[in-house]
Design brief:
Length: 256
Amino acid sequence: MTDNFAPYPSLRDRVVLVTGGASGIGAEHVTQFTRQGAKVAFLDIADTEADALTQTLAAAHLPPPLYLRCDLKNIAALQSAIAEAANRLGPITVLVNNAANDQRHGYEDVTVEFWDERMATNLRHQFFAIQAVAPMMRGAGGGSIINFGSISWHASQGGMPAYTTAKAAVEGLTKGMARDLGPHGIRVNCIIPGWIMTQRQIDLWLTPEAETKLLAAQCLKTKLMPADVARMVLWLASDDSRMCSSQLWVVDGGRL
């Protein structure tokens, strides 16, 4: 799954920032951008997973990405980490707003504090990361911002109303920022992933019954893997998609 990616010459030496890049889908983004020859920084709070990823890439004789520990709920820390990444690698011209947490929760149990925390975890940092990198992209003559939404609210999935609300809002953020930043050559797109088989998803929710139901809903009868989403991310980051902006890109095996 990792050896048959298309090469994108325009990604070589491009400075890329991935949020939530230590594990799961984010780690796949970091890996594949590194394989493309990009200069990659990633933000996370999972130190053990980040160290393991860096060691894995080093063992494959790939240049190590820059890991910066950052709690994305702390906007001042996020802004500082983005500035540090740019200072060490150069102006960021690709931003992958990947980080999120799909913790399940019943609507009856939601407090004001929990609601605000879920917005901070799944939505707020995406805007402030965009705000921080936009001047760099303007200075570079353009850039690509890739936000991550979710299939969950499109599929009327219950059991996590704060998460689905935040992810629905990501699509509105994408459309509005694409309009505002387009005159500067900055493209803003949103990926809507289906159920991606990260280890967390497998451990917590992939029962035999859930898998049967999932494959029945998909046109393509194959489970989605992180690499399937990374392929779309690479294309949207590259010059091959230079005239694509303000769009929602669904990678779900034909479920919706």
